[in-house]
Amino acid sequence: MKSLRGLDIWHGSCWTMMVLLLALGAEGYGQNSPCTATNAGLNTVYNSTSTTPSVALIDASIFSATNGNDVCKNIQSALTQLHNCHPVQGATEGIVDARGVPGLPMTCTVDPFAIGTTTKTTVLLPAGTIPIQIPWVLPANTRLIGQGPQVTKLTLGPGFNGIDMIEMGGVTVGSMIYCSGSTLFYNCQGIQIEHLGLDGSGSTGPTNGIVNQFAEELSFVNDVALDNLSGTALVLKGGANGQSTNSGPYTGITSHTSLSTSVCVSIDGGNTSGGFADTRGIHGLSCVSTASPMNTAAVTLDGSNNSLEDVYISGYADGVKIGSKNPAQNNVLMNVSGTNVTSLIHIANTANSVPGTTGFCPSPKLLGTGTYNVCDTTIIAAGITSGGTYVILDDLTGTMIATSATASVGLYALGEQVSVGNLIYGYSRYTTSSAQPAWYSYAGAPPISSGTCIPGSLFSNTTNATTALWGCATPSLSGSTWYRIK
Fold first, then answer.
1. Which helix H or strand E contains 308, and what residues bound it?
2. Average model confidence (pLDDT) for the chain?
3. Tens digit of pLDDT for each residue in 168-227?
4. Which residues contact 132 (CB under 8 A, 6 or more apart)?
């Protein structure tokens, strides 16, 4: 039996049901519910004196007598039953179990969550393929749990009408309430997706997998496969009326595609220094493409205050492209590896388009032209195992760490611009790569011979104060060597 995070409920056990009731804070559901034993789908529990119906768990398969094998209509009926039994929005919670919905193949002709409520709900999906015909828009406080990325799969059904397969939250339209907030800004919380697969094969236009523009705290995606999406597999963004700030972490995400238009992950905070897509990070990501021609970029990082950790990329021109569209500062990349990529990590030198802006990376590119998008970026443990050209390509500083010189980089830290007034002299930058200028330390003097150092490097002799500091320069065609500074 799994934990509540990967909920796997045992059928037919009164003790298990009692534990679930306690875990959901639903001890009084049976006594306070306006529902009776005649309401379809309700399970029976034992209170202090007798048995009584409970909305803590509703069996969606009961509604198949009316809805047939349309799993989405069955879920919608069960959610409606849950909401009707406890009409105060947000004041109750329960489980809709659709794992027993009969009928193969399954159909899905409606958005199961389109009932206009934010009741706290866990929906357990059945094994098999669910061909959706319209996007699913998950309201706040919704947990969507499949039986595994290769067991429960959402695919594009006949005449799929939409761009996104799953949207985490949405704006209020009439009686359709997805999140708290107003028409100016929506704040969705508690939207969670786990153990599920999405496949966009057969799309006739750009199709995204999971899109988050509204879900914030307590919202995450875990153990999900996003395959063959002609658009972007996972989108984390901010906009005029919502954002993905403080959502995550996003863990165990995989994406496989043979489509040359596919993007694995897009993090885009928009044109703002506040960072509408500053998430709790992506930890555990695999992006693999077999497309020809090669896809442009696997991950586009255009938001601030994010972390990418344990990332594998194959078959893209750029593995992680930073700041090509919008401000991206204070980001950390850890343990990024790849094969068959042109640049594993590509730092763009794109300038922000807002004239006179000084709120992003310090110092303007030119007077009145805005600032560069990228600064304060840390890369730890990046490497290409085969088939790559650059481990790190930094357009801001002109740094190119090629696989021909070294296949891995322990640390690369890009700071901020060094400038006086409107004159920019360069960037603060440090790397442990042996192919770039660095600062070395040793108990002794450096070897003084031609071609032994990278020009611009420093060397500290920790045992002799009179020859403590050395610098590397290339005074002539004879090559570079160490010169004593102090």
1. strand 307-314
2. 83
3. 998 766 666 777 665 567 788 999 999 999 999 988 888 999 999 999 999 999 999 999
4. 72, 108, 154, 155, 156, 157, 160, 165
The pLDDT tens digits of the residues spanning 123-167 come to 999 999 999 999 999 999 999 999 999 999 999 999 999 999 999
Which residue's entry shows tokens 């919704």? 142
| CB neighbour list of residue 394: distance below 8 Å, 6 or more residues apart | 347, 400, 412, 414, 429
| Dihedral class, residue 395 (left if φ above 0, else alpha if ψ from -120 to 50, else beta) | alpha
Residue that the structure tokens 């015909």 belong to: 133
Partners of 242 in beta bridges: 239
Can you give the pLDDT at residue 87?
52
Shortest CA distance to 198 belongs to which of 238, 248, 162, 247?
162
Residues in the chain: 486
What whole-number distance in Å separates Cα of residue 126 and Cα of residue 108?
A: 13
Closest CA relative to residue 170, chosen from 110, 120, 241: 241
Helix (H, G, I), strand (E, B) or coil at 77: helix
User: What are the pLDDT digits (tens) for 50-67?
Assistant: 655 566 788 999 999 899
How many Å apart are CA 150 and CA 466, to the nearest integer?
Answer: 66
Residue 139 is classified by DSSP as P
| pLDDT surpasses 60 at 412 | yes
d(CA 452, CA 433): 15
The DSSP output letter for 17 is H
Closest CA to 339 of 301, 282, 294: 294
